Structures are given as structure tokens and as C-alpha cells.
Amino acid sequence: MRQIAIISGKGGTGKTSIVASLFALAGRAVAVDCDVDAADLALVVPGDDVLREPFVAGRKAVLDCESCAACAECVSACRSGALELDTDTETIRVDPLRCEGCGVCGLVCPMGCVSYRDNVAGEWMVRRTSSGILVHAALGIAQDNSGKLVAHIREEARRLAKAEGHDLILIDGPPGIGCPVHAAITGADLLLVVTEPTLSGEHDLIRVMDLADHFMLDVNVLINKHDLAPRLTSRIEALCARRGVDVVGRLPFDPAVPVALSRGELPLVVESVAPHLHALGIALLGRQHVSPGVLPRREARPVDRGAVDD
Amino acid sequence: MRVVFASGKGGTGKTLLSTSLALHMSRAGSRVTYADADVEEPNGHVFLRPTNVVKSLVTVPLPVMVMPTCSGCGLCQEFCEFNAVISLKDRAVVFPELCHGCGGCLLVCPEYVLGERGRDVGVMTRGRSGDMDFRMATLHVGEARSAPLIEALTSSLPADGVVIVDAPPGTSCSTMAAVRGADLVVLATEPTPFGIHDLKLAVGMTRALNVPSVVVVNRADLGSPHVLDLLEKEGLEVLASIPHERAIAEAYAHGEMALDVSPSLRRAIESLERRILQ
Fold it and tell me: Beta strand pairing status for B51-65 and B238-241?
């Protein structure tokens, strides 16, 4: 089973629309949306969710006790700043958004007032689609534990792929280089880093490549919107060559891409971009894994240019 | 006045807007502090090019054995919610990447063998950019938890003057660490289904934290034209919208300030300024 994680460091470089396109091209695969606090892949992968499960992770302190003397031992011991003494009412309040459930307040409370409740951090879903299976999730509002949720849905994706005989998992990663990214790339066979020809994009690409070295993972680079700044594109290509990283594709900028996405269509319907995505699919997945049926699909859902005779 | 630029989706223009506003208000004579809290991928310095830079390390507490008399009782391992400590026959072993630094293992240890040392997780940078005070924090590559570093940055910010914070994208712990304490949150979005979906999540986050927010729509002409109506129906205050302009994209690509080459960006920044000063 091969796992390819698509990440970028910098946000907004086109990860999700590229994952959705590769998923459609592959025709038979499992996709996982690991950007759980802003999960968008399901918006462009039509199908029905056949499973929806709550995700329980961590716990939160509950202070509810007749004998609380408001001694505030817990307030001074808590390093998360989650507890506060209200001097007017002589009560102690918990801020569940700050509480990490470490258990220190329960340890120091002389009256045994503290209990802990399980925390529902979000939910995760399985969707059946014409291209295979999509595993996605939604972190609850203002929740932490995104790394744990990412690890959880990746495990589910592996289990489903095994059970149903899929040999490819496509991982749509979160931006950044912190904990949810670590959870999204651990154990992947290949990282595809989507970058853009801007100084910010280059700066963030270097940090992502350093992260890949840290985890000893193979990296390929895709330069999106390469024609917006050709000189920076060459600079990024030179950087990749110096670091021994393959640039597996370049996609042109076309304002029709966001317009297509707004209609719920993939960049594969945009004529200037589709052949490059097709070539990317072949380079990454191998010719035998890229369904030849995708380009004709473009004709089935044409871009509206006013022509009626095609 | 602390203004935080955030967004659910990445790449919607947080850094473009925050650096432009900082430069504009600083030129107009306000005392401005710019702080880049996107510690995983900070980019503000690419545009503001700080000088007179001073760097320092930011540390978080990490438990270490300070006495050799561990009995291997296992209470520390049992207590730790984050599986960051394992107890062997004669010593405790701590996994730094998992440790949240709560200090609980020190409290439960009956032999008092554990102490703490600082472990550095990132770099804090201070400098000047023109007349403004420049701050940024950079997470060490390979570190997992960015929230403690962001909190170290935001807790060091001045209480007076105009403080402009560039937050990381998303809606979870690191974004919240940057948004807490804001007087106003500016949410950058774009009129695609991704942008709108993530904007709603970001609005939910600002409401949970009880901070007021306004919206700026970037690349407003690329995507669905009905977005503005939709946002206003949701009760969101759309302060400005900026069209997709080659001049902005080009300046941004090369790390130049787009403020002077784009009248529409300037108008958007001026309406942000009016909202802040009102």
C-alpha cells in the first residue's frame, strides 16, 4: 500500500484541489482529509457519508462540589491558565477552552472537588464516492487535539484500504509544520509539497523540506501558478535541484480554476490545467493507475463558453 | 488596541493585509507593533525586512531527573495524561515532544527526584522596521506544539499603541493562542467554497473566544459573485473587498509592499484603519 501526503507549509497553494484531482484521476483509492480544523476536500468530492462517528479525545476538568472552600490551590497549580477565582462569588471557574486535562488541579485539591469529563473533540466521517473512499473529519469549534484526530482518521483510512483492497492512500495535509502535520506525514511513502513562486512560498518550502529531512521522508515538489513569477519559479527549481528534490510538475495560473471550484468542479475541467494534472498523475501514481476515462469527463461537464456545438 | 489577522483557510491574504496595515498606520504616525504569530511558517519579515534584530530562545519547562534515588514506583507514568513519561526500574524517562509541561509528575513523585529545566522550542526575534516595532517567533523545525511559543510572543506585546498580529491559519489551538486577547479580529477570506466554509469555522472560533470580528474578502472577483450577500445574511460585517490584481500578486511574489501600487488595496486598508480608530 502506498501513501502519498500532499502538504505545503504555506496555506492556500492549492493542496486540496490537487488532491481532489489526483483522487479523480486515480479512480480507485482512499483519500484522507487531514486538515481537520478547516476540512475542505469533502466540498469537491461528491458522495454520501455512510458513517459518522464522534471523536472523543482528552478530558476537561469539572469543579462542582459543595465543600469547595475556594482555597485556589488549583488556580495557582494550573499552568494552562484554565482556572480562575471569582472573588465576588468565592467560586472557581474552569475555562474549558484552555483546560488541557492534565490532572494537576485534581491532584492538589484538598477537598476532592475536581472530576474530569471526556471531551468530544470532533467527529469523523466515511464517504463513498465514484473514485473510492473519502475519510474526513471536523474538529469541534475551538478544540485542540487536532493531531490525535489526524492520527485516528489515517488509521481508519489504512484499515478501510486494506479491507477493500485499495493500494493507494492520498493524504490532504494541513498547512504549517507543527503537530497535525507530523501526524499527517508520519509513515507516508512520499511527500508532495505544493508551492507557489513567491518569496513566502519559497521560505515556507525550505522549512517543509527541513521537516521532511527531520522525519527522513522522500519529497517531490509541484510548483502551482508557475507562470505568475517565472524568475522565482526558476529559483525554486534551482533550490530543489541543489537539495536533490524532484520537481514533478508545474501548473499554470488560470482564473478559471477558482471559478470551476465555485461551481463544485475540479481543476480537471479547465483546459489549460488539465493536461498538466494528468501528467502529474502519471508521474506520481504510474500510468497504470491513472484512469484514462477522466479527460472525456471534461466533455461531459464542459466549461461554459457559450458554445453549443461541441 | 490589538488587531489580529486570522482565517480558517490559508493563503487568503493575512500577511498581505497585516503588513500593509502596519506600514500604513506607522506612516500615518501611529505607534505600531507588528507581531508575526504564524510561528510554523512566518512570512511577515519577508515584507517588513526588520533591522537591528535581536534574537532570544523561548523555552518550555521539561522534567528531568535531578536526584539519582528513583525507586521506579511508576506514579509519574501513571499520572501523565500525555504519555510523556515512562518509569523504569531506577529512573524516569521523559519524551520532550509529548510533554505539555504541566508539572504534574514533579508533584506526584514521592522521592522528589524530578526537577525541571528549560527546553528551547523556538526563537523570538525583535527588531525595527522603519518606525514600527517588529516581533516574530519561529518554531524549531521538528517541534510539534506551537501554542506555547505563540503565547510567549503575545504575552510580551505592549498594551498601548496599535498592535497588529498575524495569526496562523486554522481554527484550533495555535490560532486560538494568537486570537486570545484581541480587541478586533480581521478574518481574511476568498469567495470560493473552501474560503466560505473555512470562514464560517473561523467565525465560530472568534465567537467561542468572545472577540469581535470583521471580514475582508480577497480576490473578490475570482469565484462566486454571491458571496457578499451570503456573508451579510450570516450577520458578518464585510469591511472591504479587494479584487484579484496582477500588481498585488507581483509585488507579493517578490516580497514588496503592494500598498503603493494598488489603489484598491489602499482603500481596503484605509477602511480597516477607520474601523480601528473609531
Answer: unpaired
State yes or no: pLDDT of A163 exceeds 90.
Answer: yes
Segment holding A294, helix H or strand E: helix A294-300
Q: Which of B7, B17, B16 is nearest to B196 (CA)?
A: B7
Per the listing, cell 505592549 goes with: B158
Greatest extent of chain A over all pairs of C-alpha atoms, in Å: 82
Say whether both A95 and A177 belong to one domain.
no
Tens of pLDDT, residues B184-233: 999 999 999 999 999 999 999 999 999 999 999 999 988 777 777 878 88
Q: Which residue in chain B is spatially nearest to A116 when comparing CA positions?
A: B81
Q: In this complex, do A176 and B253 lie within 8 Å of one another by their Cβ atoms?
A: no
Show the cell assigned to B200. Answer: 464560517
How many CA atoms lie less than 13 Å away from B107 in the CB half-sphere? 19
| Rounded CA separation A223/A226 (Å) | 6
Find residues 166-185 of chain A whose CB sits inside 8 Å of chain B.
174-182
Helix (H, G, I), strand (E, B) or coil at B51: strand
Same domain for A164 and A290? yes
Whether A10 has its CB under 8 Å from any CB of chain B: the answer is yes
**How is domain B2-58+127-277 classified at the architecture level of CATH?**
3-Layer(aba) Sandwich (3.40)
pLDDT tens digits for range A249-295: 999 999 999 889 888 899 999 999 999 999 999 999 988 888 765 55
In a domain, A118, yes or no: no
Pairing of strands A219-223, A190-195: parallel
* Residue A308 within any structural domain of the chain: no
Closest Cα partner for A16 from A3, A29, A28, A31? A31
Decide if the complex's ipTM is over 0.90: yes
Q: Tell me the average pLDDT across A106-113.
A: 95
Total domains, chain A: 2
Interface touch B146/A97, C-beta < 8 Å: no
Question: Quick check: is A119 in a domain?
Answer: no
What is the architecture of the domain spanning B67-112?
2-Layer Sandwich (3.30)
- CATH number of the CATH domain containing A31: 3.40.50.300
Partner A contacted by B174 (CB < 8 A): yes
Kindly state whether residue A120 falls inside one of the protein's structural domains.
no
**Where are the domains positioned within chain B?**
2-58+127-277, 67-112
Residue with C-alpha cell 527588531? B127
Range of the domain at A78: 65-112
Q: How far is CA A260 from CA A195, A222, A238, B222, in A?
A: 21, 21, 32, 10
